[in-house]
Amino acid sequence: MRKLLAPAFSARRMRRLSGHVADLVARQLDVVEAAGPGADLHELFSFPLPVLVICELLGVPYGDREEFRRWSGDLGLLHDRPRAEAAAQALFAYVRGLIDRKDDEPGEDVLSDFAALGSEPAQREGLARLGAGLLFAGHETTVGRIDTGTVLLLDRPGEWAALAADPERAAGAVEEVLRLAVPSGGNGGIPRYAHADVDIAGVHIPAGDAILLAPGAANRDPRHFDGAAEFDAERSSRNENGHSRKSTHLAFGHGPYFCVGASLARVELTEVFRALPARFPSLRLAVPRTELELRSDVLTGGLRALPVTWDRS
Q: DSSP assignment, residue 225?
């Protein structure tokens, strides 16, 4: 699967997309500005932006966004399995139809790449499932990071002001957002099964037991990160010899499980946090932080809404 997806997330395609993402960010911020002061940043910015980007990358009509928004929302439900499975099938059928259309209407996009691989039915089925997974994961997770990252930064007014004054800090700030801003939701960890008896920190885990791995805890490990609970856009971590090195969080996983879309997420988030504080340096929550509602009933988590306000310049 990684071999199939490598061209989609190649450095060349990401460079081509980067400038366009900046334009999309600016356009969506125009929408937010026209609606305020006082707007739901989630509805006007955090949701539509990643959808615009993933639609362009995959070759999905943006006009269909409300349909796959509904399917994506249902697919991640944790309390209604039949509804989630029905949504998964609907999303799969939709993407399968798009791949078939790319035979006659190809473009420079992922689904066109898939269509060019062949038309054998079993192959198309597998590619459609892969495409549906990309469509779901390619926007839902980024929406959550924009929302929770914004809240994380607004909780630290000094960081927001620093980004507003110097957008070049955005790349470092994004790494801290990825490290610290866990989107919550129903995914209390990554499920795995012990293949053998394991003893860790005085705890015995018998072979066959299910465990939940918590990357969020690893990303706050004081043995790896100096001032692990603090936000530091210029952070470095320490190796076993005490030497400084680039911070290596686990927001995208590790090794063979490393997220194939990590480069795309970084492109989007960097452009977001370059532009958002610069456009709205006085941005603040419009409700007490305790009133923000987490989507704890869906796999990807995030916020249901993000009411904000700002001062007119």
A: B
pLDDT digits (tens, 9 = 90+) for 89-132: 999 999 999 999 999 989 888 899 899 988 888 889 999 998 88
Q: Which residues lie below 8 Å from residue 229, measured CB to CB, with a gap of 6+?
A: 220
Please, what is the average pLDDT of the chain?
87
The length of the chain, given as a count of residues: 313
d(CA 156, CA 277): 12
CB proximity list for 309: less than 8 A, separation 6 or greater: 36, 37, 38, 39, 283, 284, 285, 286
Task: Please tell me the CATH code under which domain 2-187+251-309 is placed.
Answer: 1.10.630.10
Query: What burial letters (b/e) apply to 45-63, b meaning 16+ CB within 10 Å?
Result: bbbbbbbbbbbbbbbbeee
Closest CA to 98 of 138, 148, 58: 58
Between vectors from CA 177 to CA 244 and to CA 259, what angle results, nearest 5°? 85
In the chain, where does DSSP find H-type helix? 2-5, 11-35, 41, 48-58, 65-75, 81-102, 110-116, 121-154, 157-165, 170-180, 215-218, 262-279
Q: In the chain, what are the domain boundaries?
A: 2-187+251-309
